[in-house]
Structures are given as structure tokens and as C-alpha cells.
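Session log. Operator J.P. requested a structure for one protein chain; no other inputs attached. Running the standard single-chain path with C-alpha cell output.
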Amino acid sequence: MTTRLIECVPNISEGRDRAKIDAIASVVETVEGVRLLDVDAGSSTHRTVITFVGSPETIVEAAFRLIKKAGELIDMSRHQGEHPRMGATDVCPFVPVAGVTMEDCMAAAHALGRRVGEELGIPGYFYEEAATRPERRNLAHCRKGEYEGLEKLSAPDWVPDFGPAMFNDRVRSTGATAIGARDFLVAYNINLNTTSTRRANAVAFDLRENGRVKRKGGLLGAVVNDAQGNPMREPGLLKCVKGIGWYIEEYGIAQLSLNLTNISVTTVHEAFDAACDRAMARGMRVTGSEIVGLIPKRVLIDAAHHYLKKQSRSLGISEQEKVKVAVKSLGLDDLAPFDARKRVIEYLLEDAGEDTAPLASMTLIEFSDETASESPAPGGGSISAYVGALGVSLGTMVANLSAHKRGWDDRWTSFSDVAERGMALQSRLLQLVDEDTAAFDAIMSAFGLPKGNEAQKAERAGAIQAATLGAMETPLEVAELALASMEVMEDMAERGNPNSVTDAGVGALCARTAVLGAIMNVRVNAADLKDRNRADAMLRRCVELEKQAEVAEAAVRARVSEVLGA
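Structure written below.
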């Protein structure tokens, strides 16, 4: 069954009182099935970004409880901070994560708004995809005048989408809330080596899509109006980017505060590079950057690919190494350590869930000891997958060494492509280490089912057959992938760095071992599969794989002998 997850990212107008922040954030986990992922407080902005995820059935209730608690603990009549705001819960967007659509998020936003208005007496506006009026898609429009301008609620053009259309005593305390549905928005601050808000604003205006008001003869000139008398604007460099400059007292620097509203149009690394260029042109330098709240993993991976390509370096490295490249290239650790396990939404979901790779995540010693123990798993199938992963890792290593070999600079992309293919094979083979053991466990579980009455016997027999098929399909995939990985070793033995030809040779030996070992596991289970046509087809494929692996290994051996002169 596909997991259905919506992310909710409310921003509350409290960034200094940790007790209040924790009290507000903690209420979301009083809803069963909702998981609190991140609480990112800012003292100068006096604002906290809270991130949690849940199903469409639970996320609205969690968001409602948070807005209610924030309204109880935050008095907006006393609030001051650097960030624009109009309410105790200033904004509350819903974002599709997995198995849901934007329409699901819009429905959640509208359901929440109705409850907030009717049950809590808090007014507000629907924005972005949840907007009911075109002009209200823009959050800045909804928040115009901020908290101090909420007398607008009674004006005809500003009647709220939910809640009272008046600035009463209740609203004086809670303010108003914008509730929306949107794609991932990255709140991104870029650090400058200046304390000047004015200079930071100049760079922000260079970058943001809305740009700046057009003037005659420079910054202090008269505003240029269009035929209707409205100020004309000079657009900025980056689409789907909003931004201002500000001074952050706790850091003692000015920053560009950017919202990247569509990272498919303008990526984080594109914004960072553009900021570096414009800051330099204005006599400043970017020293690093910071991400507020959580980000999807692709933000870091895309950045790593961008900077590796600029260096003519191979992309065929581990995900962990790519994250390091992105963090250093963007200067994400400039102001504070950046822990990707706590800032990337996919990693947080992985770490908060069950360990789906207990074997592959072991150390070498732990895995070896576990294999040697009295339990029958991990067995030959898991070991075959692991040996296959080691083999293609060696082939990938040769590709990466070849990619930055002196004098081969014009060939790095070709070797990078091979390394990327090798890393993909390695990743899947490592997953199969655990999947093979899971397939064995499924057979044991099936044999353990009750066999009392006829219905139970039939259920048990069906479960045994399904598990047996799985115990054949998994090692057959190992064999297929291990054979495919031999193409990497053949290629690298033929044209890779000749100093590493023996590494390609060892990789090929490992890969052939993986093929042969996996085939043994297909054959040992074939006799128990009652669907003989399927069993025979899989066995015939095993014969083909064994022959092809032998040929591939011989080709690599011959090349190794040629290079070594043996």
C-alpha cells in the first residue's frame, strides 16, 4: 500500500521563548500518526518554522491544534520581529510529499480554514493553490499591512476567506492566518560580509523576480510610471524568487532572505551563484548560506551535481559524499553545523521509521559475525548480493580514478557516466542483501501458519507458494544485476586507468561469484514451486546468465593479462 503523506509547515510568531515554542510544536504529535520533523526557531526574526507530516486524514487535526495553542500562548499586540507577519500562526501551508495530489492539499487547507474561523474565531486568507481569488494567491498580498494593518478585515476588498471580518479583541491577540497549499518552498538565507541592510536589499532586488521600481537616472531618480500612472518595475534575474535584505543581530551580518517558490524553476545553487555574482559586483562577498526548515533531498543532490560538473569531477560518488560537496559548496555550515540527517525530509522520515536495511547498515565486522552466527540468515543469497555490490564498487572506483587522471581531462564525462551506472547497481545490490533475507523469513513465516481446517490449509499453501516465488525472484535479480555490473568492469579493464586494471579484474571475479551464488539460490527453491512453467523459465534464464558471466569474466581476465604482460 502506498504511503500517503502531506507536509505541513506552519510559521508561528514566536522565536525566543523556548517553552512556548515547545508547547506549541508538541501538540501535533497528540494526533496519532502525525510525526513532528523539525522546529527551527529564529531569535531576530522572532519566528519559528515547524514542520510535521501526516496522512490527509490526520494532518488537518494536527494543524488545527497547533493554531489553537499558538493563539492561546502568543499575544500579537506585543510582538515585534524582523520578518513580515500578521498572526500568531502567520502562515500554514500544506505540501504534497507522497501518494497525494495538490488537490488533496487544497482540500486540507479549506477544511482547516473553516474550522479555524468557526471554532477559534481567527480570520484569514487562503493563498497559493488554495486561493479563492486570483490576487490572493500571493502571500505578500494577503499579508499587506501586516498585523498592524488588520483593520482592513472590514474593508470590502479585504473580507477574509474565513473567520470574523473585524478587528475585535480576539483578533487583537491572535492576529490573522494565511492557510495555503503549495509545492516545496525553500526559505533560503545567503550571508554577506557586510552589516548594511541597504546594500543587502540592493542585491536582493537584483535577484528577486519582482525586481525594483524603475527610476530615471539611478537609485535616487524619479519613479518611472506607465501610461496608467502606475510605477514601472525592472524585473530581477531569478524567476519564482522573492527576497529582501536584512541585518541579523545574533550573527552580526546582513543576509539576503530569499523564498524560492518553485525549485524546479530556480534551484538553490542557481540562487547562490547569482547572489555571489551580484554581491561581488556591488563590492561585497557571499560567505555562506543557511536553509530555514527542511528541504527535499534533491536540493542537495542537484547542487552537488552542479558543482562537481563545474570542477570536471565524476558524479559517480556516494550520496553521502554528494551531500558533503553540496554543504561545502553552498557554505551551509558557515554560521552553524549543518546536519543533513536533521534537515532533509527524506532522511528524517527514514530515521524516524523502522530500519529497512538492518544488514546493509551493519559494519563489516557486524555483518561477518551475523553471517557466522547460528541463525540460517543471512545466507548465501544475501552474501551473493553483497559480493556483487563489492565487485561493482571496485569497477566504479576505477571509473572515478580514471575521471581525474592527469592528461585525461577531456574524457571525464565518459568515466563519470560509467561511475554513475556503477553506483546505481551498487545501491540496488545492497538493498537486495536485506531483501534476500526477508524472502527467506517470508518462507519461514508461511510454513508457520496454522493448517487446521481446509481454509487455513489453502491459505498456508498459497502463502508458501508466494514466498517461494519471492525467494527465487530476489536472487534472480541479484544475478541479473551482477551480470550487468560486469559491463562496468569490462569497460574499465579495457579503457580505464591501466594502473587499476587488477581492481577491475577483482571486481569481475566478485561479480561472477555473485551470479553463480545467486543462481544456486534460485535452483534450491525451484523444486518447491508448483508453477512449473514459471520455474522452468527462471531456470533457463539461470543457464544463460551463468554462460554470459563466464564469457565476461574471461574477457576481463584476458585484458588484465595483456596489461600485466603475463
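Operator note: The mean pLDDT is 94.
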